[in-house]
Amino acid sequence: MTTTLRDSVEREPADSTDIPKDVFTEGPDLKSPGRWGVRHVQSLLMFLGLTFAYTLRVNMSVAIVAMSDSSMANPDIEEFGWDSSTQSLILSSFFWGYVVTQIPAGQIAQMWSASKLWALCMFVCGLTNLVIPIGAHFGGWQAVCACRIIMGLSQGCVLPCLHTLLGKWVPPVERARLGTYTYAGAQFGTVVGLPVSGFLSASSIGWPSVFYVVGSVTIAWSIVFYIWGADSPALHRSIKPAEQNYIEASLGQADVKEKLRTPWKAIFTSVPLWALIIVHCGQNWGYWTLLTEMPSYMNSILLFDISKNGLISALPYLAMWVLSFPMSIISDLAISKGWVSRGVSRKVSNTIGHWGPGIALLVLGIVTIDSTNVAVAILTVAVGLNAGSLSGYQINHIDLSPNFAGTLMSITNCISNIMSIVAPLIAGVILTDVSDVNKWQIVFIVAAVVYFTCNLVFIIFGTGEQQPWNEPEVTSDSEAREETNTEKERY
């Protein structure tokens, strides 16, 4: 026989925790066990993991300038003379692998261990990053693409694992804050990665040091997270009972031994999920267009040298990182005070995060900018306001389904990262002459239109309400054993 998750939890509460049945609605006003706890430590570890993941992604955006023309950095280091099309190919190759492992990673994270999967995949990613200088020397751009594809395959687990862990560790009343603090690792990794890559490329040891330093630090983090990361409060070795009870009761968790069946049909026929997929596509187009092409724009149009290039390119992401904190606090406060519904809060935040940058990019694309300071200021606004998306569509996966947040992220991230492949390639096709400001204006206008259109879909069809399919039918222990025996008999 089958039951719903709600029925199974009410029938089998946790061993030492009496969880009230009404936690499955908006729940009682549970009192936090303290301002700092194990959930914050786990968030910090995830923040650092995301920091190193994004540092690995963006270091190539700066290093490739020096790899293509060493006169821009250290002329004593080997260069390869790659043109803009080859550079765009290398930058997009990461996502060729990235889209492949999203959905499998979501399922493995849900069924096995999100923390261990993340640690192992980042170990492989860091190790591969160390090989890039050797690959470039002996195999050219093809070997670099191969390394980036492997790194993409490895990092395909990052966001599914992150969402799976957030769904288990973060109480709803802290969702925007802790979720945004964790996600801020992406911006922090960008803020650190771009200038550090610029400085290392211009140093006496040149661009190879970019890959050696970042790869080594990533490997060290993966070992730490493998040891101290935990999949849920119940599996953490030193969490206090008060904090464990607080998290589990607020989320409606219990010691559920039944195997959850992923409701694939309900998920793929869900209108709010498709709105989430579309807005995620818009985010990736705009975000990765800027992230991958900004160093080239700084170099070709604004004429910054590579050490300043990385620093100035990081400034917009520093603004995004800083703005993410007040935006998330205001979002949680507005929901907890009852000023707006969760859905309205997510849509307002995301509108700031997408239409704000869209307007800034339109200005950059339509108005002739003679001052480099004005151009940098507009780019800073464009990227900085994107912080609203962290309290918007990003956290909305958990709103729709805490039980399957990792699976939802794997689906939306898989589809949306097709845009991460396409956007740099289209930019490379448009930018036949990277010194032509008119061609850059076209790139910015296209990104602005995508931002506007996709967010409009989210406003109309998105929601902040938990979906009915969050509590699917589950297989009881006895039925699971019968199915297992049946499978064995077949063989």
Can you walk through the features of this model?
With 491 residues, the chain is an all-alpha fold. Helix content is 72%, strand content 2%. The protein has helices at residues 5-11, 38-68, 84-98, 102-111, 114-155, 158-169, 175-201, 208-228, 241-251, 264-268, 271-300, 306-336, 342-366, 372-384, 393-400, 405-430, 437-461, 477-490; strands at residues 2-4, 259-260, 473-475. It has a three-stranded antiparallel β-sheet with strand order 1-3-2. It is globular, with a radius of gyration of 23 Å. Residues 1-29 and 475-491 have low confidence and may be disordered.
Please outline what is shown here.
This protein has about 500 residues and is mainly α. It has 18 helices and 3 strands. Helices cover about 70% and strands about 0% of the residues.
Low-confidence stretches: 1-29, 475-491
Number of strands: 3
**CA(first)-CA(last) distance:** 25 Å
Instruction: Tell me the major beta sheet.
Output: 3 strands, antiparallel
Strand content: under 5%
What key attributes describe this structure?
491 residues, 18 helices, disordered C terminus, mainly alpha, disordered N terminus, three-stranded antiparallel β-sheet
